[in-house]
Specification:
By secondary structure, the chain is mainly alpha-helical. The protein is 49% helix and 12% strand. The chain contains 12 helices and 4 strands. The strands form 2 sheets. A two-stranded parallel ribbon has the order 1-4. A two-stranded parallel ribbon has the order 2-3. Helix 4 packs across helix 5 and helix 9 packs across helix 10. Bound molecules: fe (ii) ion (FE2).
């Protein structure tokens, strides 16, 4: 048997290989380093769950906005200065109720409405989550800390390349009457994905 350890030791690290690819593209005038820096900035500073939290808070305090949001997600989030890539052709907003819990996933890979709800967490991309949440959603949610009563219907939505989802969680009763800006602070990423409810106090 060849000694695989030696082969692995000789291979460049992922970082070194990325640097080499970037340098090769830069040398051909494709500005890869600039593009990567811009992408990194967007991923950490612009594509954040706070965007979705702003959408949710507005929907809670403004019933007319809520109607527009459910009718046409992309047009409604644009009112808040938020946009989605061209290939995200639809933003479907899923309203939780006391009787219905919506959960999103991407059974194929890792698609989300990332400019609105943030980049997907690692567990969302995990094969276990992607395969099990559609078959045994109640059990998976329980394992993730959300133990739903039997009478609550769970609807699982499988994201596609052009159709993206966002869950509109129920507003906790204790926050009724709060100003919009304060409501933004209680909306979590997991509630936008649908694997968590916003707890009552
Ligand atoms: Fe995907």
């Amino acid at each position: 048997m060849p000694n695989d350890d030696r082969v692995i030791q000789r291979a460049a690290s992922v970082e070194q290989r990325v640097d080499a690819v970037q340098a090769a593209l830069d040398a051909r005038g494709m500005n890869a380093t600039e593009a990567v820096d811009e992408l990194a900035h967007k991923a950490t500073d612009e594509w954040v769950p706070r965007n979705g939290a702003r959408v949710v808070a507005k929907a809670w305090v403004d019933p007319e906005f809520r109607k527009r949001l459910v009718a046409n997600g992309i047009a409604a989030v644009a009112e808040l200065g938020l946009s989605m890539p061209k290939h995200h052709r639809h933003l479907i907003v899923l309203e939780d109720t006391p009787k219905v819990k919506n959960v999103i996933c991407c059974t194929l890979c890792s698609c989300t409405a990332f400019t609105i709800i943030g980049l997907p967490p690692d567990w969302y991309k995990d094969f276990q989550y992607r395969s099990r949440v559609v078959r045994e959603s109640r059990t998976v949610l329980r394992e993730m800390g959300l133990d739903l009563p039997q009478e609550v219907e769970i609807r699982v939505w499988d994201t596609t390349a052009d159709t993206r989802y966002m869950v509109l969680p129920e507003q906790p009763k204790y926050t009724r009457g709060w100003p919009e800006e304060k409501l933004v602070g209680i909306v979590t990423r997991d509630s936008l994905i649908g694997v968590a409810r916003l707890e009552e106090r």
